[in-house]
Structures are given as structure tokens and as C-alpha cells.
């Protein structure tokens, strides 16, 4: 069964790689204007673009060859884990991405961790006290947080904590104080949704016959909660992670741009300006793969948590 | 028949929010009607007056005019992309769930390709395709949004089509249009309504987001996300100007989300 999950997700990853490559390839070819000029502008700066520079770029990159040849070349290279060289910096894309991936993952992990720190207590509390003031307050906060793009939260954080209070630096990278604001901005958007999810799950489980039976047969509230409620609360929440993964990745693009965090999202926005096709493909590909990876982990956790799935697989 | 359309108080609040924003646009056009792009550098960051109820920005442009123009852009984008994505998603979802077979498989492959990338990344790519084009952004946002309708409606259609009621209708010889109107539409309309409201909110968010990373519409176009980046450097001179587009985005999306019905408690 675990093998099946991994197999299915590997196929999905391959599919992501192919579709991202093909999609970006087609779309970038459709871009108006001369490709070579744009790349020359990205390399040498907009004031230094000339016919000669554009021709040099064209010859250098083989842009005058038919598109289909370039596309097949990209596919073959992909199989060798070679994503080509960045058109702007001329370093291998894999090398640049590997470097940026570390920063993005750091941000993602801390954001998810902060999100759990916020969402689990809030969700559990609201689920145990449905309809009370705390529940209604958490609903209101969650609705308001969801009604804005993640960068607005980031902007307000910068305004409040960096510019007014001066507690944290505005943007940058390095020591941990640079991490807190971007991770917290992301975490708030994630927690806005997952806290409600945890709340609904808690509320359902506490009202369920099996939980009432556990209490009825003499377990203390603590025992019943640990053994009977918590795994059942966790199940739908973990399954929900795949939806959160989209929010997380989209949030990373915005938040990295806002805070100049040197990650994949920041790289993607930059590569789009410079029309650095290999970098765009690489960054989009990595985001797609992170997405698949998160879903795989969620699948595996659900499998571990839910014995019913294992029995189904055996029978 | 009408009894099931019972609005909750939160939905009224959402409608009120949207009406408020729309009335801002209408009042601006009726009573002020400034050009959102005309500059007047002596008047930069002028405090609100009767002639300029929301003050002016860093180029002395009328904030009210810019906000109203940005709201129009966002609302138009929301309406267009929701209409397109709903029509596309619902019709393809019904076809895939009804006919199954190869058409279902092909559509599911297309959907999987679209789902392989987070929506915003796709919109970003399209924004790079034709910089500053409203039309391309509309195509991109609709392309991302229709998938949701397709998946929900397809699943609904499969269940409904297997129900005894539909079987009976088909046995009696009723045509596809009757089956759609009598069985499918009533089963789907609530989902479509909710998806449409959330879709409108999401399209506003997407437009503002890519405006914010400078891939969307170009200056001097007034667009909510773009206004934020433009005004951010001046926050210490006039934080209240920066707060205007921020508030507008929040109210607009909140309005759509509230109308969607929020959560079932």
C-alpha cells in the first residue's frame, strides 16, 4: 500500500515535470518581442542592449534553431537532471535552485510550524466551546485574514513591527530575526484556514457516538481525548494539507518577493522579468515537485493514522 | 420553490459591503469624475478636502478617482472571470460526468496538468506572456478558476445520473435538457453559487497579487495591488494613502466571501 502511494506520487511527479516544461516552453515561445533582445537586456542591463549584443545572445544560446529541437533537447536534459544554464547569470539552473530551495524550505518549515502553533490550540479551543465568544472571535479573525492577499498581512507586519516599532529588520536574510516576520505572515494565512478545519473536526468527533461511548465506559476526559478523539481529529486535518500546500507555495512567491527572501519564489518573479526561460521552468518545476512531495507526506501520514485504510488494502 | 433562498445575516453584510464599494464608484463618477491618471505635482499628498475627499497621491493624482478606477478594474475582472470559468467548468463538468469515457479521461488529464502548478504561478506565467494586458490576465484567472467547478460538478453529475429519479426520467423518454433542468441543476446550483462567490474573491486576490509583484497591469493604470507597491515607499509621508488600497482589497474580498455564506455552523 505504501508502495502504491509512492508509485502513484512518483508518476505524478514525472507528469508535473513534463507538463511544467511543455507549458512554460509553449508560453515563453509565444511571448511578443524578440527573445534575444530581452535576454540581452537581462544580462547587460536595459541601457546596453544593441543589435550586436542580441545577436551574440542568439548565437550563444542557439535560439535560431527550430523550437521543436530546443524543446526535445530540454526534455532529454531533464532526464539527466540538467535544467540548463540561467540565461542571466549563466550558472547552471540546478545549482542556483539548490541554493534557493534551502531558503524557501526554511521559510516553509518555519511558517508551517508557526501555523500549527497558532491553529492547533485555537482550533481545539473553538471546537470544544462551539458557539461561545472564543469560537465566534476565531471565526471572525479567520474570515478577515482570509479576505486579503498574504502580502497585505506581510505589509502590515512590516509597517507595524519594522517601521513603527523597529523590532525586526524590514527585509534581508541571514540571522533568525529576518525569518520571523515573513514566516509569521505566511503562518497567519495558513492558520486562518486550518484552525477552522481543526475546530470543525474537533466538534464532529466530540459529538460522535464513539467518543461518547469512550466516556461512558469510564475513561477520563483526558484518556478519551488522547486515545479516541485526537487521531480522529487529525485525520481530516492531515488530508486537508494538500489544499494548504497550494496556499503555502503561492504565499511563498508573494512573501519572498515582499521580504526579498532569496528563495524559489523570489527567483521566479525575477526570472519572469528577465525572460530567463530555464530559470522560470526550473523554479516552476521545483514548486510543482514540492507540491507533490507535501501531498505524498500527507498520504503517508493518513495511512499511518487510519487503520481502516490498511485493512482495506489487505483484504 | 423560492423558500430555499433564505439569506443569512452574514450574507446581507457581504452584499452591503459590495454595495458600499459600488456606490463609491458611482458617486465618484457622478460628482467628481476626476481623471485617475492626471498629475498635479504641487498637490502631492494633499490632505482630504471637499474637492478631493480622499486626498492625493505622490503625483498629486486624485485618490478617489484612482481607487474608484481600481475598484472597477477588480470588479470587472471578477465578474468576467467568474462568468467564463463557471460556464466552462459547469458545462464541461456535466459533459464529463454524464458521458464518461474518453471525453472524461481527456478532460481529467487537462485538469491534472492545470492542478500540477499552484494557480498563482500559472497566472504569473501568463502575466509575463503579455505584460500589462487585462485580457491575458482575465484568460489566466479564468483558466485557473474553472477547474474547481469542473471537479465539483463532475462528481455531482455522476451521483445524480446514477440515481433512480434520473433513470426513471430517461425511461420515460425525457431529453437531456429536461434531465439537466429537472435533476442536475437543482443538485448543483448551491455549489455553483458558493464557488462563484469564492471565485470572485480569488480573482480579486490574484489580480492584486500579481500587481503587487509588478507582473500585472502597468502604471499609470490604477490597480489595487499596483497602488500598494507604488505608495509603500511613501508610507511615512502619508500612511493613510497606503491604507486606502489595502482597505479596499480587504473589504472587496470580504464582501464576496461573506456572500458565499461563510461556513456552515
From TrEMBL, chain A:
Query: Where does the protein end up?
Result: Cell membrane
Kindly give the CDD domains that the UniProt entry links to this protein. Answer: TM_PBP2
Q: How does it sit in the membrane?
A: Multi-pass membrane protein
The record's PROSITE patterns line, in alphabetical order, gives: ABC_TM1
For this UniProt record, give its keywords in alphabetical order, as a comma-separated list: Cell membrane, Membrane, Transmembrane, Transmembrane helix, Transport
Domain ABC transmembrane type-1 stretches: 101-302
Which InterPro entries does this chain map to? BPD_transp_1_N, MetI-like, MetI-like_sf
Superkingdom of source: Bacteria
State which residue ranges cross the membrane.
12-31, 107-127, 139-161, 167-193, 233-259, 279-302
Family according to the record: Belongs to the binding-protein-dependent transport system permease family. OppBC subfamily.
What protein name does the entry list?
A: Peptide/nickel transport system permease protein
UniProtKB/TrEMBL annotation, chain B:
Q: Which InterPro entries match?
A: BP-dependent_transpt_permease, MetI-like, MetI-like_sf
Q: What keywords are assigned to this protein?
A: Cell membrane, Membrane, Transmembrane, Transmembrane helix, Transport
Which Pfam families does the record match to this protein?
Answer: BPD_transp_1 (PF00528)
Keyword Cytoplasm annotated: no
SUPFAM superfamilies xref list: MetI-like
Where does it live in the cell?
Cell membrane
Q: Which residues form the ABC transmembrane type-1 domain?
A: 71-260
The name this protein goes by in its record: Peptide/nickel transport system permease protein
